[in-house]
Amino acid sequence: MTKTKLGEGIHSSSEFMPPGYSPPKRKDRKAGGGGVLVSVRDCYCAAEGEVPDNDAEAIWVEVSLRNKHKLFIGSYYRSSSGNASNQLDELEKKLYHISNKTKNNPNHTMMLGGDFNLGDIQWDSEIIDP
Predict the structure, then answer these.
(1) What CATH number does the domain located at 13-117 have?
(2) 102 close to 126: Cβ distance less than 8 angstroms
(3) Most buried by CB count within 10 Å: which residue of 3, 32, 64, 119?
(4) What is each CA distance from 76 to 27, 65, 69, in whole angstroms?
(5) Phi/psi at 58 (nearest 5 deg)?
(6) N- to C-terminal Cα distance for the chain?
(7) Which helix (H) or strand (E) holds 79?
(8) In the chain, domain spans
């Protein structure tokens, strides 16, 4: 989920999560909107991914599956205000860290979703208008 707008006042996931889901891994914004979270069904073993913290508004969860397979699920939000290039550089650092965990193991998969707010990309030249 992106743009969760959750804050310190909401401690219990039962306030917004349906039954059958583990408590979500969250990265709340300090003030005003934003925020990301990932939650999985409670029948799966999931832990917050060990990813260096930086300014990217992203959270990663590592889900253990059968036969030593792992699924790394990320949720990302890029604010439409601010420098798109800097924000994407911060995301790239997190992706690099996760890809190092998955690249030598065909049993690991990485999945990233979110709100990238990149409606102004010129896809032919891959240029982002600030």
Answers:
(1) 3.60.10.10
(2) no
(3) 3
(4) 10, 23, 23
(5) -145, 150
(6) 25
(7) none
(8) 13-117
